Amino acid sequence: MTPDINEVHLNILLLGRPQSGKSATGNILLGSYEFESRLSLGSVTQSCELCQGRFSSFFRRNGREATLCVNILDTPAFPHSYLKASEVKNDIHEALLEKFQRGLDAVVLVLRADVAFSEEDFKCIQLELLDFEWRNYFYIIFTHHDRFEENGLKLEEQLSNAPRALKVLLESAKNRYHFVNSVAPWLHAEGRPVLEKLLSLSQQNKYKSLKFKPSASSLQHTG
């Protein structure tokens, strides 16, 4: 079957620490409650899970209405409450091989905006866990924006005084980030701006994906 040229697919990988709002962010992007997301003293997601969404007439391409299809891979948190780092790594690698044979279009790191960011967090995020050149595909989503709004604080001002480790991380993402309201009643309204930015990121990369190679634990550029 000939692929529809006015249908764009985005393969999105979600990463984050326990209780960062990673699965909730996946639901926001999909506009529906697909991933299990709840408060817990430990990690909720135990293995990788793929969910898909389809948004008709999401944007215009070549003078025509185009459909956006998103494939979102939620992953076990790192560090995990119950799984070893090697187990998390192997699960993600296997899921990438099975689910994202075409490659990755966005690597999304989910961080809580209302929790202090430390040097230890930065070390964990460097993901020796994944072993690939992710900077051109890297995006940061800050959750719990609502907590700041409730207290009359502006997150942009907070970022200007962020710890050095967080500033370095933002530089790695080329200052691509977005704030989401974790208790938004309308997921579609909260998710569309993020999807637009991830689509723009894919366009900047000329729709080229990061291809996962089974022979080596790395991801390389492919067209």
UniProtKB/TrEMBL annotation:
It comes from the Eukaryota. Signal peptide: none annotated. Residues 7-223 form the AIG1-type G domain. Keywords: GTP-binding, Nucleotide-binding. One of its GO terms (molecular function) is GTP binding. Pfam families: AIG1. PANTHER family: GTPASE IMAP FAMILY MEMBER GIMD1, GTPASE, IMAP FAMILY MEMBER-RELATED. Belongs to the TRAFAC class TrmE-Era-EngA-EngB-Septin-like GTPase superfamily. AIG1/Toc34/Toc159-like paraseptin GTPase family. IAN subfamily. This is GIMAP family P-loop NTPase domain containing 1. It comes from Erpetoichthys calabaricus (Rope fish). The gene is GIMD1.
